[in-house]
Design brief:
This protein is α+β, with helices and mostly antiparallel strands and 465 residues long. The chain is elongated. The protein has three domains: 2-138, D-tyrosyl-trna(Tyr) Deacylase, Chain: A, CATH 3.50.80; 159-342, no CATH class; 358-449, Rossmann fold (3-Layer(aba) Sandwich), CATH 3.40.50. Strands 1, 2, 3, 4, 5, 6 and 7 form a seven-stranded mixed beta sheet that branches. It has helices at 48-65, 85-102, 154-160, 167-175, 183-199, 202-205, 221-237, 262-269, 326-342, 368-380, 394-403, 414-419, 438-449; strands at residues 2-18, 29-32, 35-41, 69-74, 106-109, 114-122, 129-133, 141-142, 145-146, 208-210, 241-246, 249-255, 277-282, 288-289, 298-304, 310-317, 320-323, 358-362, 385-387, 408-412, 421-426, 434-437. The model is unreliable at 455-465 (pLDDT under 50). The chain has 13 helices and 22 strands. Bound molecules: serine-3'-aminoadenosine (A3S). Serine-3'-aminoadenosine (A3S) binds at residues 19-20, 40-42, 74-77, 82-83, 85, 88, 112-116. Serine-3'-aminoadenosine (A3S) binds next to strand 3, helix 2 and strand 6.
Length: 465
């Protein structure tokens, strides 16, 4: 289906002469105030899927230009492969129904099957004109219906939701610099990518870096289609494994048996995801289908967000598993952490995933030199560490470290300086603080971080079969 969408300050049309035998609509004339005029050419093969996708485009343009009225205008001149009038008319009626279902404003339609005189006063601003080609292969279907068409089915609504994070989560994602993306967020995304490469053994046997393809947001139709397309790209490419950068995150994919539990892998990355993952089969009848022009089978794993959306985190399609984008996985983990906190638990990240692994806090200025030595010896071992100087109260600095779920908060006071020890608050154990020798602390933090990919011995390279 081809669309030409114009933001008009006013429009007028008048039927002049029948263009087909027995036009389904009576002749008519109308003057319309400010509206989006949607010139529509129904193409060969268009079905209710294109009608729903086109309705989405029309309603989105009206919202974009802030107009409360749309005029659907059948227009047999935007495509070389037009559908015959009868089919075109029935698809046009479907488009009208789908627009009415979505659009809170007024929806009008010009008569079909007529030569018409018309006038459109185009507003002329940069956003005024838009042309779109709408095809089913862009659609994601759930139980055979496009996700974008409101179906009242809670799963379909959750899949199509564009607002996966509530206010609470948005604040936390900003603090962790995941949304908008910042340094801490890229550390978490990168750590997840390294962890996945390590878990799948790809890091030892090599993988291809695919060019990234744009992806809008963490959930909704586009994210689902992007993940499915990525799997197919790797499968069709006959690749052993691949990493594609998608915006601030990356998708890691590898050849995997169908009995691989992607839910298990995700909860291994963070137990916070436990119980918040849902699997939807990629199956034309019963489940989710991101048609890419050919049949395939598999499933997708979604994170159930606190805001009630389903965020795609992993998929297994035709022998290829893929997890990511890693920034969406990190966001899901933080959102799940909020759910744990709401249930009275203290959300913690594995040390290898924590963007900040250790905070060193000298109580007073005379403790700064020794504290700096502690911070430097941790950083020297590759521990992500910061020193928070006594420019504000001790309590405020401890709370700041806790707000970033820092696994190790290390306080340095007079006693510690004299005895060459440190006082540690471990977020995971939640127990009170403990005094221990600096060397023992370094050994513990590094051994915790070693549970991640960075220090663990890589598996021996596979003999190239
Ligand atoms: O082609 C004659 C008139 O019949 C309608 N029509 C279509 N509209 C959209 N998509 C198709 N595939 C169509 N097939 C037929 C239109 O109303 C068309 N009339 N603007 C007027 C005069 O040109 C017009 O296109």
């Amino acid at each position: 289906m081809r669309l030409l969408l114009l933001h008009a300050l006013e429009a007028w049309f008048k039927t002049v002469q029948e263009a087909i035998r027995d036009p389904p609509d009576p002749p008519g004339e109308a003057r319309v105030g400010e509206c989006v005029v949607a010139f529509v050419s129904v193409e060969d093969g268009d079905t209710e899927v294109e009608a729903a996708l086109a309705a989405e485009e029309v309603v989105a343009h009206a919202a974009r230009v802030g107009v409360g009225r749309v005029l659907l205008y059948p227009f047999a001149h935007l495509s070389p492969s037009l559908a015959p009038p009868k089919t075109a008319y029935s698809v046009l009626l479907k488009l009208e129904a789908e627009v009415r279902r979505r659009f809170k404003g007024e929806a009008l339609r010009a008569p079909f099957g007529w030569y018409k005189a018309f006038r459109v006063h185009c507003a002329g601003h940069p956003m005024c004109e838009l042309s779109r080609t709408v095809k089913a292969s862009q659609a994601v279907l759930y139980r055979g219906k496009p996700l974008s068409s409101p179906s009242g089915d809670p799963v379909a609504e959750a899949l199509a939701s564009r607002r996966p994070w509530d206010g609470e989560a948005v604040k936390l994602l900003a603090r962790f610099q995941l949304h908008p993306p910042g340094m801490l967020g890229s550390v978490m995304s990168g750590a997840l990518e390294e962890w996945l490469l390590w878990k799948t053994g790809l890091s030892s046997r090599g993988y291809s870096r695919l060019p990234g393809s744009g992806r809008e947001g963490d959930s909704g139709e586009a994210a689902v289609a992007a993940l499915a397309r990525h799997c197919l790209q790797v499968a069709e490419g006959g690749l052993e494994g691949a990493v594609a950068s998608l915006g601030p995150g990356a998708v890691v994919s590898w050849r995997a048996p169908s009995n691989l539990s992607l839910e298990g892998l995700l909860t291994e990355a963070s137990s916070l995801l436990e119980g918040r993952l849902a699997r939807v089969d990629l199956d034309r009848e019963a489940g989710l289908w991101a048609p890419a022009g050919r049949d395939y089978s598999g499933y997708m794993v979604f994170y159930k967000s606190r805001a009630g959306a389903l965020v795609p985190l992993a998929a297994w399609v035709d022998g290829i598993a893929c997890v990511g984008p890693t920034d969406a996985v990190a966001k899901a983990i933080l959102d799940a952490g909020l759910a744990a906190a709401e249930a009275g638990e203290t959300p913690t990240l594995p040390v290898w995933l924590a963007p900040v692994q250790a905070a060193v806090i000298p109580v007073r200025s005379e403790h700064v030199d020794y504290a700096r030595r502690v911070a430097e010896s941790l950083a020297w071992e590759g521990v992500r560490t910061y020193l928070d100087p006594p420019t504000r109260g001790l309590g405020a600095r401890i709370r700041a470290a806790a707000r970033l779920w820092t696994p190790y908060i290390i306080v340095i006071g007079g006693r510690e300086v004299e005895s060459g020890t440190v006082t540690v608050r471990r977020r995971a154990s939640g127990a009170e603080q403990e005094s221990m020798p600096l060397e023992a602390l370094i050994e513990e933090v590094v051994s915790q971080a070693r549970l991640g990919p960075r220090w663990s011995p890589l598996p021996p390279p596979q003999p190239s079969q």
